[in-house]
Amino acid sequence: MSFFGSFKALFRKLFSREKTKKFTHNHVAHAYSGETHIDEQLKSQFWAIGGGKGGVGKSLVSVMLGSALTRWGKKVVLVDADLGGSNLHTLTGIHNPQYTLADFMNGKIKDIEKIALETPVRNLKVICGADDILGIANPKSSQKARLFNQLKKLNADIILLDLGAGTSYTTLDFFLFAPNKIVLLTPQSTSIQNAYGFVKTCLFRKLTREFRRDPECMELLFRCNNSGGEEKINTIARLKKEFVKLGEERENRLSACIDELNMGLLINMVRQKKDIQIGRSFIPVVNDYLSITTEYLGFIEYDKRMDKSVNKMSDFLSDGTGNTIMTEMGFYDLSNKLVKKMFKDSKGIKTGNMERQKSGRQEARPSGS
Fold first, then answer.
1. Distance between CA 186 and CA 70 in Å, rounded?
2. Which run of H or of E encompasses 144?
3. 129, 156, 167, 241: which has the fewest Cβ within 10 Å?
4. What CATH number corresponds to the domain at position 98?
């Protein structure tokens, strides 16, 4: 069965179930229960939020999640990695940023810490993207390497990379750079299909870079997308079998590349219980066709108040009015789970509780804390 055929079958099965019901946030458990111990601080620091399709809410989720993480006592830097259509500065109330990534990429600013601008939210900074300079959306390899090296030096507990739409090399490289990867999608079929295409393209970007100097391996990778007169390789499981014929060393390298691409799934704009199951249909398809382990991170409820608040997002976040929405939509819960995932002990949680006490504000306590 083809990829699209598998989704069609899944949708038919899901929609044949009980009638659509309205639900509250507490009706469905929406956070993963497992914890992964990460020994190195660097590995727990970087999180990329991608998904392929535009309009799924990557920037809004980045801002809201970043703000929620600060309430656990974390220093957070948002990086607008959408170099062709940046908007994080607008959402954080910065209308005319003094510095942007363009200043760093062009060498005008040497220290990336200087372009990390303060936002109205305490402990939340943003590195603004730039879309007004020709060529900035397609930086050279040397520029990307310099940027990645500098990002590692930022004074932050957590760095969230807000990726642009599409599958440009720059977007894929940002996603592959981050040890922690979040695929954001909505319950619509177009969003799920685009997310699948995004993950598949990321995988093959990674594999072609690994085997670019090996003609035999590259021929097999070519057959995954084009038959070229030979039988097409339509799953990664089949690709692995073909790599076995090339020897143990190549087989092991292939398996290592695939295993390194673990990621988490986050479903946005959930309006009803059925949406969660539709979104989660992404997981078995990615596993079956791409052999990639995808962990369910949770869901974010749709709230019309968010749409009305976009133009005044900085006020919405800084004056405390967003606390109830953050809790109801699941951002506090999600941020809690991410902190637990990054740090095995409860030190970060305790620090966050102290920060909230010092703030003197009555904030909603995250569920499960």
1. 25
2. helix 141-151
3. 241
4. 3.40.50.300
